[in-house]
Design goal:
- This protein is α+β, with helices and mostly antiparallel strands.
- The protein has 2 domains: 2-70, no CATH class; 79-301, Alpha-Beta Complex (Fumarylacetoacetate hydrolase, domain 2), CATH 3.90.850.
- It has 6 helices and 19 strands.
- The strands form 3 sheets. Strands 1, 2, 3, 4, 5, 6, 7, 8, 11, 12, 14 and 17 form a 12-stranded mixed β-sheet that branches.
- The longest helix has 13 residues, at 45-57.
- It is globular and about 60 Å long.
- It starts with a strand and ends with a strand.
- 44% of the residues are buried.
Length: 302
């Protein structure tokens, strides 16, 4: 299934829906189903089964180009972002004239970012006035569907509701200064994160599995104003989603609606491509992130 949040023509309120490939949107509005994504995920497998039945009945269908897509999950409970692609880690450290810390190879690391600044497909993203070094980050994210703590890596995919594209927008000049303090990024990151265009359940990706544990052979690309700038593959990730979820759940409970980001795929940001010197993104730029089998996440800067 491909679940989404949308506004139908002539309406001003969001609906829960599903995508019927390639280009039809089905409303999941029904008296006994939640009307927004977080509550729907929290409702569990029985609600998800009802949603599949509704889709098969194909009620209330609109062409995709006639609806307005919103962030599929507009307020996740938490948003953890990992640092799991080795190529990105190596290049980012090389550009700072340092080696990859040996601790990076010991366990997957993450930081918490702001679940209250989520944007969706086609939203305009404001460049913060405090930065002169705006950057995108091409990532994939997993949305937790089943609660759990001390989750074993081999069982972690059972806890994933769906995957989506994640743009972890970055103010690189501010981030660079913050990282010197030693607490990780804060104002360099928390102003915007984009998720979308929809949530794709793991069963839709099984045929592209690359070793299990939430790793898939799927091409990831980024374009700025129509020009390709980044190209990588999900299968090149060093730490699987199974390992990341296991790490995240140590001594804490993960809840339905929590989001786990992968970190940037190799070449997946200007920081890698320009040796941290720019040129950086500017107002009016159109950024498209694409992951095979998932979709295209497009935003314009202002």
């Amino acid at each position: 299934m491909r679940y989404l949040t949308f506004i139908a023509p002539g309406e001003d309120h969001s609906r829960l829906g599903a995508l019927l490939p390639p280009d039809r949107v089905v409303s999941l509005a029904r008296g006994d189903l939640p009307t927004e994504m977080l509550a729907f995920i929290q409702a569990g497998p029985e609600a998800w089964q009802v949603a599949e039945e509704i889709v098969n009945q194909t009620q209330s269908v609109w062409p995709l180009d006639q609806v307005k897509l919103k962030a599929p999950l507009q307020r996740p409970g938490t948003l953890r972002d990992f640092y799991a692609f080795e190529q990105h880690v190596k290049t980012a450290n090389k550009n700072r004239d340092r080696d990859v810390p040996e601790e990076w190879y010991q366990f997957p690391v993450f930081y918490f970012t702001n679940p209250g600044s989520i944007y969706g497909p086609n939203d305009e993203i404001a460049i913060p006035p405090y930065t002169q070094a705006m950057d995108y980050e091409l990532e994939v994210a997993a949305v937790i569907g089943k609660p759990g703590t001390e989750i074993n890596a081999k069982d972690a995919l059972d806890h994933v509701f769906a995957f989506t594209i994640f743009n972890d927008w970055s103010a690189r000049d501010v981030q660079r200064k913050e990282m010197k303090v030693g607490l990780g990024p804060a104002k360099g990151k928390d102003f915007a994160s984009t998720l979308g265009p929809w949530l794709v359940t793991p069963n839709e990706l099984t045929h592209k599995s690359a070793g299990g544990l939430g790793v898939y052979d799927l091409v990831m690309t980024a374009r700025i104003n129509g020009q390709e700038r980044s190209r990588g593959n999900w299968k090149d990730i060093y730490y699987s989603f199974g390992e990341m979820i296991a790490r995240a759940s140590e001594s804490v409970m993960l809840y339905p609606g929590d989001v786990i980001g992968s970190g940037t795929v190799g070449t997946g940001c200007l920081l890698e491509l320009t040796k941290a010197e720019g040129p950086w993104l500017k107002s009016g730029d159109v950024i498209e992130l694409e992951i095979e089998q998932i979709g295209i996440l497009k935003n314009t800067l202002r």
